[in-house]
């Protein structure tokens, strides 16, 4: 690479090659200190990310991590879906922590769609109806909001500023009431109109100054050669089209999602950094080929604090699955990788890495398809390494790592399709090793 992650130039994009929750928050927070603009490109409050820095620990669901850089503009793009109450709460909490959030450093796309109470209701009702085949959604109304967007009936953030918003709201509420009553077999009102409007008005007062047309601003910064950083939510294995359908999200976490959000073609992106942990996790249903549903999995979950930032649900845990990562690297357009949480393995006597997928008589080094039925037939092929007893969290160079930790990284690199350029050995911004 021409420069380290903390010395980057041009337009960069951070994604996740697997199922999300792999440490993008730390990498984006690190890179955002150098950014002129940080753009959140997809998803909504289903994508929780945790940032630990000198200001404390923050758990965000909508706010771009660039908000901690007073010199950067943070942007919620057209392709994000916004719960206005959650966003206004995050803004208020940041202000209480002494962090400035104004129209000078946060732009909210007027074209982003609003998550409404009926979206969350439909989300949860659909999960109940699925029974044993539930997807495991966060219940935040993401899918139904994107569905209304596709049907061209959704309300947008910019509509909050219109003088006829209440009329628009009432037209949509009338339809949603009919739908809700038919599903509940009830003639009584299913939504409290006045309460919803009060909540929207409270949120509008906070976010109104920041609502604008964001695409021209993104282009202005990119065309001027300023440092623009894109931030994905979730991971490529949850991509609507390239993930393990139906156990997916409703947007695009890879380079295609960055293009949709910013209008910047992939050829004009300096690099795409994929972030993955030294092991695999997943929230929700669907195949996880290397899953360790045992005491070892419980131990790694506890050491890594693997609980969802959005739902609090314990994440499913497995060994690092490199064929699946290689699939996510290819589909997500990654040019390099950041490896996080190797410090979680401190003290483990033995570590396994999945280096192949055996299906029938064939062995794959890259997952050939994310088809759910195919993934359920995978037999992981492992390489077993000795662990290390010493603490990795103080290491600041490859040579300072324990010998077996070095071997672990070298083994991962040997089976990856892109170079590793950073190894994280702690949750804060600075415990990082650049390769």
UniProtKB/TrEMBL annotation:
Binding site for Mg(2+): 21, 48
Pathway: Purine metabolism; AMP biosynthesis via de novo pathway; AMP from IMP: step 1/2
Cofactors, names only: Mg(2+)
Entry superkingdom: Bacteria
PANTHER family hit by this protein: ADENYLOSUCCINATE SYNTHETASE
Reported function: Plays an important role in the de novo pathway of purine nucleotide biosynthesis. Catalyzes the first committed step in the biosynthesis of AMP from IMP.
Keywords of the record: Cytoplasm, GTP-binding, Ligase, Magnesium, Metal-binding, Nucleotide-binding, Purine biosynthesis
Catalytic residues in the record: 21 (proton acceptor), 49 (proton donor)
Binding-site residues for IMP, renumbered to this chain: 46-49, 138, 152, 234, 249, 313
Alphabetical list of InterPro entries matching this protein: Adenylosuccinate_synth_dom1, Adenylosuccinate_synth_dom2, Adenylosuccinate_synth_dom3, Adenylosuccinate_synthetase, P-loop_NTPase
Family the UniProt entry places it in: Belongs to the adenylosuccinate synthetase family.
Gene3D superfamilies with a match to the protein in the record: Adenylosuccinate Synthetase, subunit A, domain 1, Adenylosuccinate Synthetase, subunit A, domain 2, Adenylosuccinate Synthetase, subunit A, domain 3
A GO term from the CC aspect: cytoplasm
Gene Ontology BP annotations: 'de novo' AMP biosynthetic process; IMP metabolic process
Top enzyme category: ligase
Protein name, as recorded: Adenylosuccinate synthetase
């Amino acid at each position: 690479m021409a420069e380290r992650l903390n010395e980057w130039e041009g337009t960069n994009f951070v994604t996740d090659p697997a199922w999300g929750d792999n440490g993008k928050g730390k990498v984006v927070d690190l890179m955002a200190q150098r950014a002129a603009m940080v753009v959140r490109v997809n998803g909504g409050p289903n994508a929780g990310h945790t940032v630990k820095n000198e200001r404390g620990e923050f758990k965000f669901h909508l706010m771009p991590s660039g908000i901690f850089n007073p010199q950067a503009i943070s942007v919620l793009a057209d392709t994000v879906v916004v719960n206005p109450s959650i966003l206004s709460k995050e803004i208020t909490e940041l202000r209480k922590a002494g962090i400035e959030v104004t129209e000078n450093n946060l732009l909210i796309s007027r074209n982003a769609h609003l998550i409404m109470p009926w979206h969350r209701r439909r989300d949860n009702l659909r999960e109940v109806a699925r029974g044993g085949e539930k997807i495991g959604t966060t219940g935040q109304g993401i899918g139904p909001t994107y569905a209304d967007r596709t049907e061209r009936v959704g309300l947008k953030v910019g509509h909050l500023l219109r003088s006829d918003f209440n009329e628009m709201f009432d037209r949509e509420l009338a339809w949603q009431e009919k739908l809700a009553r038919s599903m509940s077999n009830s003639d009584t009102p299913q939504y409290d109109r006045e309460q919803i409007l009060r909540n929207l008005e409270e949120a509008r007062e906070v976010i109104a100054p920041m609502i604008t047309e964001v695409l021209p601003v993104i282009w202005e910064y990119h065309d001027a050669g300023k440092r623009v950083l894109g931030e994905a939510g979730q991971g490529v294995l949850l991509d609507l089209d390239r993930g393990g359908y139906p156990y997916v999200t409703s947007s695009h976490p890879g380079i295609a999602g960055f293009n949709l959000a910013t209008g910047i073609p992939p050829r004009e992106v300096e690099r795409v950094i994929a972030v993955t942990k030294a092991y695999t996790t997943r929230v929700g249903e669907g195949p996880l080929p290397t899953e360790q549903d045992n005491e070892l999995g419980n131990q790694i979950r506890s050491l890594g604090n693997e609980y969802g930032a959005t739902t609090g649900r314990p994440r499913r845990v497995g060994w690092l699955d490199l064929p699946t990562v290689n699939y996510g690297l290819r589909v997500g357009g990654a040019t390099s990788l950041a490896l996080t949480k190797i410090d979680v393995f401190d003290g483990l006597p033995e570590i396994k890495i999945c280096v192949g997928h055996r299906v029938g008589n064939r062995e794959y080094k890259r997952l050939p398809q994310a088809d759910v039925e195919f993934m359920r037939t995978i037999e992981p092929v492992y390489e077993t390494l000795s662990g290390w007893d010493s603490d990795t969290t103080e290491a600041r160079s490859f040579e300072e790592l324990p010998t077996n930790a070095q071997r672990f990284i070298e083994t991962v690199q040997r089976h990856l399709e892109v170079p590793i350029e950073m190894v994280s050995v702690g949750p804060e911004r600075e415990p990082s090793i650049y390769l």
